[in-house]
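Troubleshooting log. The previous structure file for this entry was overwritten by mistake, so regenerating from the original sequence record. Sequence copied from the archived sheet and checked twice against the printout by T.R.
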Amino acid sequence: MTPAPPTAPKPPATKPADTAKKVRAVLWTLLAFIVVAGVIGYALVSGAKPAPTPAAPAADAQLVREDSHRVTTPTTEKAQLVEFLDFECESCRAAAPLVEKLKKEYGDRITFVNRYFPIPSHRNSGTAALAVEAAAQQGKYQQMYTRMFDTQPQWGEKQDSQAALFRTYAQDLGLDMAKYDATVAAEATKDRIRKDIADGKALGVTGTPTFFLNGKKLTLDTEEQFRQLLEDAAK
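Regenerated output below.
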């Protein structure tokens, strides 16, 4: 009788701490990968090669403008964190929960500012920005911002316009739909978003999300590093 082959040893069980580390590593790898993909997509659309960060921004470029969306209002501001984002960008959506946690932790000392930077290769990112800005004009910026990222898997990467879907989000939020439609169609709303894009390009933004802390463009590798930078700035 042929003896049965020896049973292979079972691999050691994965510890919860190891699993958490792997999840964080995957998250930051995903962020890095999709930012690069966004840069490549932008280059394909514009016909230009991804440019390195310019030595100095254009003279009229502004990191924060009077109408920029300040989503925290600390009594005593220690620092400013500015994020250029795209609502169709998967890495922006992946980073959003962490950013929300950081707002709660540091929002009493750091002003968090959001700016639009829709990537041309994302068919509905500009449309989403228009919808969010229209909601903002009726005091519902944060609600529409959250709705866009929550539902991104449903509408992201589609080639047909999702304007009608975004309009249903506005209805759900109880917005005045006549005002919403007028704001979405208004050239002033489009100019508002174009201004954010122009400032971002002049400041060296080539992909999303891109963060500036006290005017310095950040290169982020880990959640711990991001948190430490904010901790130091908030002192």
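Residues 93 and 149 are 6 Å apart (CA to CA). Archived copy saved in two places this time.
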